[in-house]
Batch of 2 targets.
Target 1
Amino acid sequence: MNQTTAAVKEITCIADGVYSMWFRTEIAKEAKPGQFVMVNPRSEAHLLGRPISICEIDADRSLLRLVFRVVGYGTDELASSKTGDSFTILGPLGNGFDVSKAEKDSNVVLMGGGIGAPPILGLACALKAAGVQKITAVLGYRSREAGIFLKDEFENVADVVITTDDGSEGLKGNVVEALRAKDIAADIIYSCGPMPMLRAIKGFAEEKGIPAYISLEERMACGVGACLGCVVKTKDKDEHSHVNNTRICTEGPVFEAQEVDI
Ligand SMILES: Cc1cc2nc3c(=O)[nH]c(=O)nc-3n(C[C@H](O)[C@H](O)[C@H](O)COP(=O)(O)OP(=O)(O)OC[C@H]3O[C@@H](n4cnc5c(N)ncnc54)[C@H](O)[C@@H]3O)c2cc1C
Ligand code: FES
């Protein structure tokens, strides 16, 4: 983990309020899909870093891609930046997705909901590079009007199924409904998205008896395990603290769904 100054190489608006940003940083050399970075706002009035998942990694060129939705001060400041601006960032943080859990000939299903889709794209690229043959990405969005971002990039590495809340693109409904409606074979699931979606995936995985790895993107403060502001209840007791709690920022954000109480 490093704290470094990272320069903005490129920033583009890719959907309503959603931005894609490439940072030039040595953190790219250590990063893996599903990990995140803390981006510090430049204003001293805002002390806490903002956690943003790593969307894509170009280790050779020391580039990291982040895709984020503007919701408040920190993300608005990021969206307003220009090529050449610099930010202090800390990372890579968290455990990330374990690509080795997927067998090369298994049916791997990736599920991304809204702004949970970006880390799943980096994972899809890593799975493809590892030789996994059957990758299906089921991606849920609000509506066509709000933007079906990253779809083309997912199509380069996976079979893609789109759902929208209003049915304006793809199937109407959520990603788990799409999995059932299309009877998509799944030996393993990796997912990131809003909590109701992750709960539904946990239920689906339990019913089918398959492993599901979910990334929890709840609120964080320090991002490095110090404040206990991000704990989630676990099925088993932690072997050090002997309590049924774990920190999302350090032991997560990716957990096997049945291990956490969400
Ligand atoms: C591990 C992790 C990875 C993340 N990855 C991404 C990502 O790749 N792209 C992305 O757009 N966002 C991501 N987020 C969410 C992102 O961190 C927040 O949207 C951001 O910190 C908001 O900062 P802000 O200063 O713009 O808004 P603030 O002014 O801090 O908050 C504005 C509003 O957003 C709400 N909010 C803040 N954080 C969250 C959150 N984590 N979940 C839901 N609501 C929140 C607040 O309650 C408030 O209503 C991630 C969060 C975590 C914990
Ligand atoms: S955010 Fe501080 S311990 Fe996780």
Note: The chain has three domains: 2-93, 99-216, 218-262.
Target 2
Amino acid sequence: MTLKLQMLGTGGAFSKSFFNNNALIFDENFTLLVDCGVTASMALHALGRSFGSVDAVLITHIHADHVGGLEELAFSMKIQYNRKIPLYIADSLVKPLWENTLSGGLYQDGAITSLNDVFDVHPLQPGTAVDLSPGISAELIKTQHIPGKDSYSIYFNNRVFYSADMTFDPELLHQLVNERGCEVILHECQLEGVGMVHTTLEELRSLPEYIQKRIYLMHYDDEIKRYEGRTDAMHILEQQRIYEL
Ligand SMILES: [Zn+2]
Ligand SMILES: [Zn+2]
């Protein structure tokens, strides 16, 4: 069964020309929203879609460009669609997502007092693949992003790596390709400067060509046009375009 990808946005945290780096991963029967940032509902609207057309949401880490749209998603599901959407999230992020991020907006005495009151919460353990639908499986891989903050990449269908936000980890990329048969790498990319909490284009360019060929760049800033033709064997992902993975 073919797995498809449509980025709702490919922008980095400060991008103004692109929506937040959120993705739709889907097949004929199921649509997964990967991260739900501040711009997620607008990005869906730009495609003529809404939260109602999404079957589940998976969260990689707690930053506004990845979770800032969850309050609207939760209220929209409760009030407009009268259903709880499955929320896939690392076990370690369930408590902080509610206590540090969402309770302020969602809390309602006797009605909404936990994440479970608005989402069908599925806590995930890193390193264990879970079937989200008959055609889509996801395994969380813990990766480094911000010191002291849990963040996860995703391995879809045992062949597609989705970096989310992470610092450069060439060992992991080599291992995925050489030992686990990874075919496609959707990787965040900081275009300029030192990679303090992200992976830079320069770092990715140090990878061998057979790995670069599998890499599609995302989570970039507004200057990406200037880098066309300067990404070696790597491809630049376009938001809203549909790719077959
Ligand atoms: Zn981000
Ligand atoms: Zn982040």
Note: The radius of gyration is 17 Å.
